[in-house]
């Protein structure tokens, strides 16, 4: 079923298009494919980028605090000719949405692959990106509320998370996981990677 790709804020798209048309922005980026593109260059498939705040034990218990996310930007895949060769990130500034940077690397191809895979699912979804910085992990977040505000909202239990490659050890990339199944796994990993809590300092003797 086709994905319901949310519309990006118009200023975010304009800032990316302006950067693509700027020789300075393109030449300063670590993106050789943009310096000598094969065919017209376009910005497509805008995806809101959300960051998953650190989980805690209450997220696993019935009635516990749900995970929190925050929007950090919009990402556009950059097509050159017949393939995606780079991505462009934007960020919110006091003056509105602005271009941040171009980049290449494995997440570009991984995002495209995961999106194509998601189009074969029986249910329609709104695609987003969800980052878990503590695990150096990026997922395609398939949100079931296709008409929801893409800049807000929490992962629902029935939403799907698709880890992108490279994924953390032991987590298979491109395998869709319900949020209710994957979040407990991530929470346990975060517990193991969290630094130990220092012992309380004893009060000085009177």
What does this structure look like?
- This is Secreted protein.
- It comes from Streptomyces cirratus.
- There is one protein chain.
- This protein is α+β, with helices and mostly antiparallel strands and 206 residues long.
- The chain has one domain.
- 24% of the residues lie in helices and 31% in strands.
- It is built from 5 helices and 8 strands.
- The protein has helices spanning 10-20, 23-28, 32-35, 106-118, 179-193; strands at 41-52, 69-80, 83-93, 96-103, 126-132, 137-143, 160-163, 177-178.
- It has an 8-stranded mixed β-sheet.
- The longest helix has 15 residues, at 179-193.
- The protein is globular, with a radius of gyration of 19 Å.
- The N and C termini lie far apart (71 Å).
- Residues 57-63 and 199-206 have low confidence and may be disordered.
């Amino acid at each position: 079923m086709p994905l319901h790709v949310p519309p990006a804020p118009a200023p975010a798209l304009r800032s990316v298009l302006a950067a693509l048309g700027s020789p300075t922005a393109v030449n300063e980026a670590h993106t050789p494919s943009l310096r000598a593109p094969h065919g017209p260059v376009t910005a497509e498939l805008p995806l809101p980028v959300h960051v998953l705040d650190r989980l805690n034990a209450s997220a696993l218990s019935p009635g516990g605090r749900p995970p929190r996310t925050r929007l950090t930007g919009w990402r556009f895949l950059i097509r050159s000719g017949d393939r995606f060769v780079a991505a462009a990130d934007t960020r919110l500034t006091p003056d509105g949405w602005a271009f941040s940077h171009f980049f290449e690397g494995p997440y570009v191809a991984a995002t495209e692959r995961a999106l194509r895979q998601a189009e074969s699912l029986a249910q329609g979804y709104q695609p987003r990106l969800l980052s878990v910085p503590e695990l150096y992990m990026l997922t395609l977040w398939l949100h079931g509320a296709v008409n929801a505000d893409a800049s807000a909202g929490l992962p629902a239990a029935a939403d799907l998370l698709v880890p992108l490659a490279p994924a953390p050890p032991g987590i298979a990339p491109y395998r869709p996981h319900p949020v209710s199944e994957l979040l407990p796994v991530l929470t346990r990993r975060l517990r193991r990677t969290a630094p130990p809590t220092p012992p309380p300092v004893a009060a000085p003797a009177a």
